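Protocol step 6 of 9: fold each sequence in the batch and record its structure tokens directly after the sequence line. For illustration, a two-sequence batch is reproduced in full.

Sequence one:
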Amino acid sequence: MNRSLLAAATVAALVVALPAAAQFQKPEDAIKYRQSALTVMGTHFGRLGAMVQGKVPFDAAAAAHNAQIVETMSKLPFTAFIDGTSQSQFPNTHAKPDIWAERAKFDAAATKMQDAAAKLNVAAKSGNLDQIKAAFGPTGQACKACHDDFRSK
């Protein structure tokens, strides 16, 4: 029994220890993954933005649904920013090489955006448009800050 537990623990440790690059067969797969996650997040953030700006009627259930997706998606793309996937290697990406040169700054920006998305989700669950508006701005600013520093135009 102890050998089985030890073997299972060893396998689990190895799986957890694998680098993020091992999750993708090719660099192009990582790029597609992160672009897809960011596109979905941006789409649902835009739907919230339309409500916040009064371009569409406020719908508390739809706002909560969209904010939940934004928060979930905010956690996904960053494992796909692996070495060898910047725009210097792949022109179909806007990922600046600065991401890898300033990785700690990039990771901090990602965490800030994820924290803001989580606060937006909490605000949206309240069903209160004013709370959503208050959380929407900082989330958008966190997204923009990362784009300004790490995404080419």
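Sequence two, same batch, same settings:
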Amino acid sequence: MVLVVDDNDTTRKILQTLLSSAGLNADCCENGRAALRMAEAGHYETFLIDYRMPEMKGDELAGLLRLSHPKAFIIGFSVESKDLEFRQAGANVFVPKEHLAQNIIPIVRNKSTTLNFMTS
């Protein structure tokens, strides 16, 4: 089960549709606080987290989730280069938002930290 965390409704819907069309179950929420509540109540193996959100940045959320869910696979994404921030917080992988749609399914399915794109 995947939890998509992004304050942009369109991005959440696109990611949920992509994941669902690949046979993966995905829930969505709009911010870090909601994600923490859902993580406590749900059974998520993978978290897909945007960096820029109100109230709590994605790297902060990734760090909190890593503490409470040490075996979870955490994927950070952003339009900004935030690889270092996410990795330091405990994320397994960072994906530039421009490459997310074409790479998310293999990454989630294989829990892969080896990415098939070149960063700019």
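Proceed to step 7 once all outputs are recorded. Observation for sequence two: The chain has five helices and five strands.
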